[in-house]
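User: My collaborator sent over this chain with a note saying "see what the structure looks like." That's all I know about it. Can you take a look?
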Amino acid sequence: MVRRYLRKLIPVSIRTFISKIESFLLFEIYAYRFLGPFVSKTLRQRQTPLNYLFVMAPARSGSSLLGHILYNHAEVTGYGESHVAYASNHDLQHLIYRTAAVLDDFDPLACTYIVDKLVWEYPISDSILQNQQIKFIFLLRDPAATYTSTVKSFSGHESPEEVDKWIAYYLKRLKTLETFATQINSPQRCLTLRYEDLLGDTERTLDSFQRFLGTTAPFSDSYTVAKHTSRLKYGDNSETIKAGKILRRKFHPPTLNDAVFTPQKQQSVYSAYSDCISALKKHTQFQGSYLSQTSENLRTLAHKKSKNLRTLAHKS
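Assistant: Without extra context I'll predict from the sequence alone. Here is the result:
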């Protein structure tokens, strides 16, 4: 309760500055300079190479929930978003050090995969994309639900300017995901998942994780909430994530404010979303049955647009 109050009281700019100082001390000093040599020495005792799992998504697409499901598995570990670019294997080594710095119980000999979530536009080199020790989960969520979650999590209010800013980010992010999937072009190393299927078709989705990652044990719909999950830059700060399990429910797309997020703009993001899914299906494994829901959303938006045009014509 106190933490929630402080989040509202302290401006985001100040919290961001504090987070940067914290990150510098934790990673640049403790993880890289002090902890790194000890972790590297331990890693040399591994019988098999350590693998990596990158969750690729737009922000507010459910990556924190997915991360918790993954981290809860004995063969997988991670802590959230690193907020870094990946240019070489040196950056993968730094991911191990950062994970060791954040997680008190990190054991570099026990896990098979280390996870990082990438939801912002950080560059990833082709050598990283082609690295056979890295697998990728592409996570998407209904655009209206993604936008609504963004508003609730960040500004809390809507305006045409904020909508345009979000659309620009969202469309660019979808294009980036398409580009990465095309460059990787390896269904054996790439899985596409919809957040709605994680909530509404949970067993089948969890089974797909085990097949994709080749783990010995199945994945559970329950998890231990990471102590750092609500902190700035580490993931979701909502109460839903603190439930400790997947809150299963059938998806119902939220209703957007047409006066702010016009039907034309809605149709543009749903079209881009559909195009992204189609592109990902060509280059990745696909888990889910998005087509009927997406097509229905597009038909609804087309009807709204047609109705608005008729109204404008009648007024003129």
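A starting point for your reply to your collaborator: The CA atoms of residues 24 and 125 lie 24 Å apart.
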